[in-house]
Amino acid sequence: MTDGRGETPRRTGMTEKCGVVGVSLNGRDAARPLYYALYALQHRGQESAGIVTHDGFQQHSHVEMGLVGDAFGEDDLDALNGAAGIGHVRYPTAGSVDSSCAQPFSVSFKSGSLGLSHNGNLVNADEIRDELAAAGHAFTSDGDTEVIAHDLARNLLEEDLVRAVKHTMGRIHGSYSLTISHDDTILGVRDPQGNRPLCIGELEDGYILASESAAIDTLDGDLVRDVRPGELVVLRDDGQGFDSYQLVENENTAHCFFEHVYFARPDSVIDETLVYEARRNLGRKLWEESGVETDVVMPVPDSGRAFASGYADAASETTADGEPRDADDDGVEFAEGLMKNRYVGRTFIMPTQDERERAVRLKLNPIKSTIEGKTVTVIDDSIVRGTTSTQLVQLLKDCGAEEVHVRIGAPAIVAPCYMGIDMATREELIASDKSTDEIRDAISADSLAYLSTDAVAEVLDEERIDLCLGCVTGEYPYDIEGEATDRDVSRPDVGDRQLPADD
Ligand code: SF4
């Protein structure tokens, strides 16, 4: 993607892929609840937004590039008739950055209409696309969502909805949380390892499926539960409930731990854990593992805030050596020493090195009185390329900090994500070929420490094998060409399309 001057916009940090939603109501049009829910999920994708509804007779669709607020006008929402629908906000992962990959993907075929919203990334989409293309399917995009739609459409010609979804799940391999409309029936599907989140909520007059519970809160609904890994949930057409089908059983899950650390809203509940509390507890653990006694501890806003608050709390109870504090020892002072310019978008153009170096000054302004003459611990959730951390340490030292210690509320990112997070390549990741001490020197910090993977598992109350830790271990829970796996897993053979004679 280039701007008008031919420069390549540079995205900083990591970006989440997508947010999905599906709603089935009793009589009321679904378009506005879907629109508000997408607003609540805007942090999960800013490239495009779309809604597909069905009024019992026909499907209606409106999909635009841009933010939710810009993508829909009053007239667009008025035209989206029907009490059932799905929505999507997208940040491009698989597929090109243009409207052909914006979602929901919709298609009409012999046995009805289909809409699909996908959060995640398939690792065997090309194999299935080749097989379907050889069988005569014509594709309009290079995205993996269209592959799922075509596979499902083909199955639906021969079998009922539940069996069709089951057989598609048996062929696709990778990460997916889907909301699907089949005419005016709304479905939710979570991949057998539950990599991406998806939850069910109850509204006053219907039910909702959403990537995060914050979308349910926005509609004054109640979180019912997470969709289980390998489960198909079918919302009833009258808005009176839902049916559940456990289509695939899997021994272990592979929840993306970065949802808790970085992507999800802090006010969302994912896999039964409030994200804000998880981040605070990760911060507490960070103090236990690598606390350092400094005059102040401060977050990088907003990403480091919950970690820093937990870290400072733990620091007020015990010393860095793990001993209880004396009554007159207040521990480390928590301070907001960095102010964020909220009007700097996630993507901005920085064509020259000089401008890139100014980026952190554009985003963050230090409060000198909090920093000058002090020893400082600054807390963030990740280091990707190291550029921002280097600038940040320099900024704090320029402000008069005597020492700058950096603490990170997650393990070091050493490898890319194939499950849909835009995280940078191995060559760009500073930790892919540098030790923690080397990174400390590269960013000119007085000390640097990351949280351990064991601490992440302990805080999230999961066995390590039930988490995806691919980007911090280099071993993945899916069968990805050229990469190691952390479990016994292999992609399905999609060459032979004999439908199993089961069920
Ligand atoms: S590789 Fe990292 S970011 Fe990607 S799904 Fe796994 S834990 Fe999440």
TrEMBL record:
Record key words, sorted: 4Fe-4S, Glutamine amidotransferase, Glycosyltransferase, Iron, Iron-sulfur, Magnesium, Metal-binding, Purine biosynthesis, Transferase
Species name: Natrinema salifodinae
Domain (Glutamine amidotransferase type-2) ranges: 18-238
Annotated binding of Mg(2+), by residue: S303, D380, D381
Binding positions for [4Fe-4S] cluster per the UniProt entry: C256, C417, C468, C471
Matches recorded under InterPro entries: GATase_2_dom (IPR017932), Ntn_hydrolases_N (IPR029055), PRTase-like (IPR029057), PRTase_dom (IPR000836), PurF (IPR005854), PurF_N (IPR035584)
Active site: C18
Catalytic activity, as annotated: 5-phospho-beta-D-ribosylamine + L-glutamate + diphosphate = 5-phospho-alpha-D-ribose 1-diphosphate + L-glutamine + H2O
CDD domains: GPATase_N, PRTases_typeI
Bias (Basic and acidic residues): 484-503
GO molecular function: 4 iron, 4 sulfur cluster binding; amidophosphoribosyltransferase activity; magnesium ion binding
Protein family membership: In the C-terminal section; belongs to the purine/pyrimidine phosphoribosyltransferase family.
Stored HAMAP family: PurF
Cofactor binding remark: Binds 1 Mg(2+) ion per subunit. Binds 1 [4Fe-4S] cluster per subunit.
Chain intervals for the UniProt region annotation (Disordered): 481-503
Annotated protein name in UniProt: Amidophosphoribosyltransferase
Electron transport recorded as keyword: no
Record-level GO BP terms: 'de novo' IMP biosynthetic process; purine nucleobase biosynthetic process
Role of this protein: Catalyzes the formation of phosphoribosylamine from phosphoribosylpyrophosphate (PRPP) and glutamine.
This protein's record includes keyword Kinase: no
Listed pathway(s): Purine metabolism; IMP biosynthesis via de novo pathway; N(1)-(5-phospho-D-ribosyl)glycinamide from 5-phospho-alpha-D-ribose 1-diphosphate: step 1/2
Enzyme Commission code(s) on record: 2.4.2.14
Cofactor(s) named in the record: Mg(2+); [4Fe-4S] cluster
